[in-house]
Specification:
With 123 residues, this protein is mainly alpha-helical. 72% of the residues lie in helices and 0% in strands. α2 crosses α3, α2 packs across α5 and α5 runs antiparallel to α6. The model has no long low-confidence stretch (mean pLDDT 90).
């Protein structure tokens, strides 16, 4: 099994906290445009993103994560989640994984970067 995936799975709660901290530093007013459930839903979303990234790492299938990302845009954008907040989320995931795992995070970082190839904003 993928060693990075195992570590990320073990560290999920801490990773979610770190990603949320990063997101709020980038955009302190992020929750103001969403309902009072915004913080709870964002926490859940970050956990789902990490879980899908872990699953893609285990399967060694970057397209699996890209497909998830394309699906995610189709779900979140129509619900009023702005692309800027989605970008901040994934940028912070990249930053946290880099800071936490350094070179060991390379495969996950590649998967995160590859998701941009499926970004459907321009379509």
């Amino acid at each position: 099994m993928n060693a990075l995936a195992l570590v990320m799975e073990r560290d999920e709660s801490s990773l979610v906290d770190s990603v949320l901290d990063c997101m709020l530093k980038e955009k302190p007013d992020m929750y103001e445009r969403y309902s009072e459930d915004g913080p709870k839903r964002t926490r859940e979303d970050v956990a789902y993103h990490l879980q899908h990234l872990v699953a893609a790492l285990i399967a060694e299938d970057s397209e699996m994560f890209s497909d998830y990302y394309a699906w995610l845009l189709g779900v979140l954008l129509p619900r009023g989640i702005v692309m800027e907040d989605i970008d901040i989320n994934f940028t912070c995931m990249h930053q946290v994984l880099t800071e936490r795992y350094g070179d060991d995070a390379q495969q996950a970082l590649q998967y995160l970067e590859q998701r941009n190839l499926t970004d459907t904003r321009a379509n």
